[in-house]
Write a structure and sequence with these properties.
254 residues; alpha/beta; Spore Coat Polysaccharide Biosynthesis Protein SpsA, Chain A
Length: 254
Amino acid sequence: MKSIPGLLLSAGSSERFGHEKLLTALPTGERLMERSLRAHITSQVFPLIVVVSPNIGKTIMSHPQLLSCSQMVIEDKADQWHTFSCRWGRGRLITNEDYREGISSSIRAGLSCLRGEERARGILISLADLPFLTPETINVLVNEYLRTQVGMLVPVFEGVTGHPVIVDVNRFQDDINQITGDTGLRVLLKRYPKEVKMLSWHDDSVTCDIDTPGDLDEALKRLGNETAGETLEIRDGTTGKRNNANSQVRGNGL
């Protein structure tokens, strides 16, 4: 199977949540960040670059027991990023010191970890607070991108754009260098509509993220049948009740 590099953005400020949401413990025995890490690192994404805030970076380095489910270990530092290992594979981790400048700064931080040849097939950009995203979904997106070779592939559920997105960074390098704040890659949708493929998706796994304690409560209900120590099986997004109003607000995706 062919792979493409991926950025897992985990450097949000969690202001609407009240504390570091990605370190929230789930009833499965894993942290939200670990759940997302597993979905991406067991997919056709390689290498995986995890972008974290300074607080999360310091926390997982000083308290590795917090990520005991994934057995994540931070290893050597190369330039600005560290290598890491976990029970599912290996990757790279970089701290985005400018995380308060928005998602655009995290994208640039993640891209800085990739070598020239690693940008040749496009790059997947995803968020760490999508609890129902699966490796299978990621692989469908990767293979569709590789098949079509579009400039940008964006999943859409009920009219809401989501994540992961896959983009030909080399094609849009100048535009990406100029993005600021939380605008992210949405600017590409407006400037180059003919270069973008919107892929209709069948469930809200690509749009259902966790921004508030209320979002977490809804997610926990849908995760209720999972227990620590059992095989972790993520149910598809068609189960459980979806809050359409919240999803529209949260679908800022790009």
